[in-house]
C-alpha cells in the first residue's frame, strides 16, 4: 500500500489503521508513538484527521458500544473499556445515551439473554447460582440486572 513503512508519514499510518476499523484518538496516538514519530507531528496529524471527519472519538465510541452489546456485555464493562481507550467521560456518556436510544437497548433484557445463551437454569445450589452471578458480573452487568436475569431463567 505504501512504499515502505520507513517512508510512511503519521497520516499514512493513521489512514491505514482507520481503513480497517474505527480507532480512538488515543489509540492512534499510541500506535504512532511506537513508530517513533514526534509528538507534535502526531498531534497535528490527529487534529487534521479529526477536522476532516476521518477520525472521531464519538463515532468510535458509538461503534464500540454497539459491538459490545452484540457480544452481550454490560454497561459497566463497556464504560471501563472505553476509558482504557482514551474516551473522555462526556463523549462516553453521550455515546451511550445515543446508542441506547437508537438501538432501544434494555440492559436488563441483555443480561437475561446473555445468561440464557450460557446457562439453561438459574442453578440449583448456591454455588451454581454464584457461578452465574460471577459470569454476568464479569460481563459488566450490575447487581439489579444480574438479579433480574436470574429470575428470568
Structure description:
- By secondary structure, the protein is an all-alpha fold.
- It is built from nine helices and no strands.
- α2 (25-34) packs antiparallel against α3, α4 (57-70) crosses α6 (89-103) and α8 (126-138) packs across α9.
- The termini are far apart.
- The model has no long low-confidence stretch (mean pLDDT 94).
- Its main location: cytoplasm.
Short description:
With 153 residues, the chain is mainly alpha-helical. Helices cover 69% and strands 0% of the residues. It has three domains: 7-55, Winged helix-like DNA-binding domain superfamily/Winged helix DNA-binding domain (Arc Repressor Mutant, subunit A, Orthogonal Bundle); 56-105, Arc Repressor Mutant, subunit A, CATH 1.10.10.10; 107-152, Orthogonal Bundle (Arc Repressor Mutant, subunit A).
- Radius of gyration over C-alpha positions, nearest whole angstrom: 20 Å
Largest sheet: none
CATH class of the largest domain: Mainly Alpha
Helix count equals: 9
Q: What structural class is derived from the secondary structure elements?
A: mainly alpha
Question: Which keywords apply here?
Answer:
mainly alpha; Arc Repressor Mutant, subunit A; 153 residues; 3 domains; 0% strand; WH-like_DNA-bd_sf
SSE topology:
Elements: H1 10-18, H2 25-34, H3 39-51, H4 57-70, H5 75-84, H6 89-103, H7 107-118, H8 126-138, H9 143-152
Helix pairs in contact: 2-3, 4-6, 7-9, 8-9
Amino acid at each position: 500500500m505504501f512504499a515502505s513503512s520507513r517512508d510512511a508519514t503519521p497520516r499514512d499510518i493513521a489512514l491505514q489503521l482507520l481503513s480497517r476499523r474505527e480507532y480512538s484518538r488515543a489509540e492512534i496516538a499510541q500506535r504512532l508513538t511506537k513508530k517513533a514519530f514526534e509528538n507534535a507531528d502526531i498531534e497535528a496529524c490527529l487534529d487534521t484527521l479529526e477536522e476532516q471527519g476521518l477520525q472521531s472519538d464519538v463515532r468510535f465510541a458509538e461503534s464500540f458500544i454497539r459491538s459490545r452489546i452484540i457480544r452481550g456485555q454490560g454497561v459497566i464493562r463497556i464504560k471501563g473499556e472505553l476509558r482504557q481507550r482514551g474516551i473522555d467521560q462526556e463523549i462516553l456518556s453521550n455515546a451511550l445515551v445515543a446508542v441506547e436510544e437508537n438501538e432501544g437497548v434494555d440492559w436488563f433484557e441483555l443480561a437475561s439473554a446473555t445468561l440464557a445463551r450460557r446457562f439453561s437454569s438459574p442453578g440449583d445450589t448456591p454455588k451454581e447460582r454464584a457461578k452465574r452471578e460471577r459470569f454476568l458480573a464479569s460481563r459488566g452487568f450490575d447487581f439489579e440486572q444480574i438479579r433480574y436475569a436470574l429470575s428470568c431463567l
